Amino acid sequence: MKDVDKTYSLLGKKLKESRLERKMTQAALAEGIVTRNMLSRMEHGAVLPSLPVLCALASRLGVPVGYLIDDYDDGMSARNRRLLDLINAELAEGNYEACLNFCECLNDYEEQRDAIAAFCRFHLAEEAMYRGELAEALKGFSRLAKEPQAMGVSSTLCSLYRALLSEFLAMPDTGKEEAAFAALGQFATAPHDLVTLSGILSLLGKGKRSEAKAMLSVSVFEERSYGLLCEGRIALEEGKPEVARKLLLEATGFRMLPPVMCYCLTLLESCAASLKDYENAYAYLARRRELVAQMTKNG
Predict the structure, then answer these.
(1) How many angstroms separate the CA atoms of 212 and 199, rounded?
(2) Measured distance CA(96)–CA(277) in Å, rounded
(3) HSE-up (13 A, CA, CB side) for residue 142
(4) Which residues contact residue 193 at a Cβ distance below 8 angstroms, ignoring those fewer than 6 apart?
(5) CA pair distance 105, 60, nearest whole angstrom
(6) Cα maximum dimension of the chain
(7) 296 Rama class: left (phi>0) / alpha (psi -120 to 50) / beta
(8) N or C: which end of the chain has fewer CB within 10 A?
(9) Rounded distance, CA 116 to CA 114, Å?
(10) What is the Cα–Cα distance from 18 to 68, expressed in whole angstroms?
(11) Helices (DSSP H) in the chain: which residue ranges?
């Protein structure tokens, strides 16, 4: 009889906890299924509901029937559900640091937990990269590149970012951005703006301007700034610095990765120098040096 009483009590506790988690009154849960008084007796462990009633209550609560009748459930499933609800809410808001903190509290659902954690770490690393905190971003991408592919996280993209940041942080001085982009040639088959940019710059570096223009003509960039950057680089190569400057200045109006912005400033400096606009040439040089110093101070 003690085992039966324990089952009654545990089921009632789960009913009540699930109801309170969803901020439901007894009347709201019971409506159309049982009386409120009968539900109260169930929650207090005084009576065990029939299977049809149990199924109806579980459906309204949004929980598996098995959860309510599992004698060996220690309540951790309900706790994890609450945590997963909080995680989903934070993900919707883009609060990845908070999501990671909640993931550390999960004591079950290892596969789902690890996938969510990897997804959050990727976005945190990406945010750090756009803020110019390249050393911090590099640590994040390096870790992710070594892990199995998780939800929404491409190990190839992590490796791509890792290669770019590693090369850029290793530059001894400014004006060497094309060398950093050249390292991305190993990802030639990866569909990413950086890879396309690297391919076009590689052709220009080999003196193959017509091939570079042909590649640009069939390329579809996700970010408009990359296309403008390539057009500006080719215009500069063709001896059209005024055209190149207009294209490159337009590119700076878009959000760009800091290493790409540095390259854009390098090209703008060349444009200004070709136009004998030395004041602006120096301004672009100073801005680029400032940006590089900011990005590499913790490298």
Answers:
(1) 8
(2) 45
(3) 10
(4) 221, 222, 223, 226
(5) 27
(6) 96
(7) alpha
(8) N
(9) 5
(10) 9
(11) 2-21, 26-30, 36-43, 51-61, 65-69, 76-93, 96-105, 110-131, 134-145, 155-169, 177-182, 193-205, 209-217, 224-237, 241-251, 258-274, 278-296
Give 10-residue mean pLDDT values along the chain (299 residues). Answer: 52 86 90 92 85 84 76 57 77 86 74 82 93 92 76 81 90 73 87 93 93 94 94 95 96 92 94 95 92 76
Q: Which residue has the tokens 């990671």?
A: 100
Task: List, in order, residues 6 or more apart from 254 with CB less than 8 Å away.
Answer: 223, 224, 225, 228
Contact 259, 164 (CB under 8 A): yes
Nearest partner of 233 among 203, 195, 190, judged by Cα: 203
Nearest to 200 by CA among 222, 224, 177, 233: 233
Contacts of 205-211 with C-beta under 8 Å, sequence gap 24+, read: 205/178, 209/234, 209/237, 209/238
Query: What is the radius of gyration, based on Cα positions, of the chain?
Result: 29
* 3-class SS of residue 32: coil
